[in-house]
Write the structure tokens for this entry.
Amino acid sequence: MLKSLQSDILHDADSNDLKVIIISAEGPVFSSGHDLKELTEEQGCDYHAEVFQTCSKVMMLIRNHPVPVIAMVNGLATAAGCQLVASCDIAVASDKSSFATPGVNIGLFCSTPGVALARAVPRKVALEMLFTGEPISAQQALLHGLLSKVVPEAELQEETMRIARKIASLSRPVVSLGKATFYKQLPQDLGTAYYLTSQAMVDNLALRDGQEGITAFLQKRKPIWSHEPA
Amino acid sequence: MLKSLQSDILHDADSNDLKVIIISAEGPVFSSGHDLKELTEEQGCDYHAEVFQTCSKVMMLIRNHPVPVIAMVNGLATAAGCQLVASCDIAVASDKSSFATPGVNIGLFCSTPGVALARAVPRKVALEMLFTGEPISAQQALLHGLLSKVVPEAELQEETMRIARKIASLSRPVVSLGKATFYKQLPQDLGTAYYLTSQAMVDNLALRDGQEGITAFLQKRKPIWSHEPA
Amino acid sequence: MLKSLQSDILHDADSNDLKVIIISAEGPVFSSGHDLKELTEEQGCDYHAEVFQTCSKVMMLIRNHPVPVIAMVNGLATAAGCQLVASCDIAVASDKSSFATPGVNIGLFCSTPGVALARAVPRKVALEMLFTGEPISAQQALLHGLLSKVVPEAELQEETMRIARKIASLSRPVVSLGKATFYKQLPQDLGTAYYLTSQAMVDNLALRDGQEGITAFLQKRKPIWSHEPA
């Protein structure tokens, strides 16, 4: 499953035609995480290590991908499924969705999901989820920063597509440079962050689409993107 | 007081019978922080230094403790008292509780409380509290991540005990490894965080309770924890 | 504009009479950021670099300034204007205000505004704003930590002045040491943060106003600040 997800995410990653990725699921569960049958004693700890390393790779792939990745959630997202939502750049959920890291209930603390969760929500929210295993509602997830937007189930696809279409209407190299720069500056001290991003602004202006956008704005017309990479 | 708190927190820390700690208070104030009589000129700056170092040690003890520490707050928590709430892993408060860092009013900026506060709530919330000294309500504290849950006063003990009992029903070594791993990965970059936690997942699966939990789940029965350490 | 802002912020910075700074605007827009005419191809990339470096300097000046800086926002704050709000220590806004980082619409990703935004709000909120360019309301900005307070337009000046007057009534060297210490400890690990702030508490107690505040409190009278620097 993880390898299929990895290959789907990487599919056409370098094509200028790819502007945005949506990860969604069928049925009442978005994802309940790892298959526990892969984590029994018989599989051995080398295999366990491989499973978690593959999972971590997929999560980091989302962040390092050149286009924004949106999670569209309609239902329960638990353990590595909750990690997947937390790892996406944007997450839209229906109001019936819920989120949990319940591993502790079965003696397997959600430590890898905790990495993504702790970077999305306040520490006390993450710890209560991790220590009690209890779910939070979509509304709570929104309040605490795990989600970008919550809508009624009937509007989930429409709202997600609206955001996706908006992103698809933009210049891919501009969005791509912006995404990479965002995550690069995030862990830096303020001075380094501004040094890196000031340079990124200059590079962005040197892109063909950077100049096209500004010219179009000053000429009060719609920009025509070339999507020409740097 | 700090030394008594320290000794209480350390009491039986290594016993398998200890599963969770609740810190609470009697009377209308949870804690109003340092005794100002200890901070006058006569005490001298070596003594002042000792006071703040002891306080910092207690706060770090909570984080480094093998079991989750819950603050149960019913009333006012100010200065180092607010720091204590922010330092706990989980915090449950009654709706009449409030939280402040008012040191600036008496010429002593709450810099040590600010450490815990800034790691619990957004920066602008922390700075307004620190610069104005004004209290925030339990509801605001919940919204901003200082609290895990707010309940009516009459339900405070029941709700706190419900969370504590839930944690006490889990495997101590699993919870303990999870807590230590959470705080270890928190300041790391994403790659290092996933490296550390992937290893922790493998270690968790190698615990007797890790395998018991998965086996019980696959056999559709309740797990029986041995609480056997690694 | 940036240079004028810089010079205004630096004006009388070292005077004991300066206790707090309010940044506000006239008209329906707080600030819409850079003048795009400065960012065309004709200006050249050396000039572009200078623009963004100057902007970054102004933003860091706010953080490094000895007194708290309050943004008073009544209207739209976009791009570097939104960055300015996020960079202030405290931000009060009228309920009709809104906030956006719409650069991506014109092919110039708001990477420098993203530095301040990502340090004020949860990551998913920042990324949705940056990727879609869509505005958030004052209420959403408050919920997510970009603002300290939202009030009806008619009360904006009164509420901002109330906070400013409160800060102006405090000891300048105490507030100043507190602000500098807060930002210094913020990126550190917990042990280092407590080491730095414990020392700052001792230094604060050695200030004349530190002792005056505590003495006044114990004597149940109002403190009389000397504002004498360390």
Remarks:
- Residues 41 and 48 of chain C are 9 Å apart (CA to CA).
- Chain C has two domains: 2-168, 172-218.
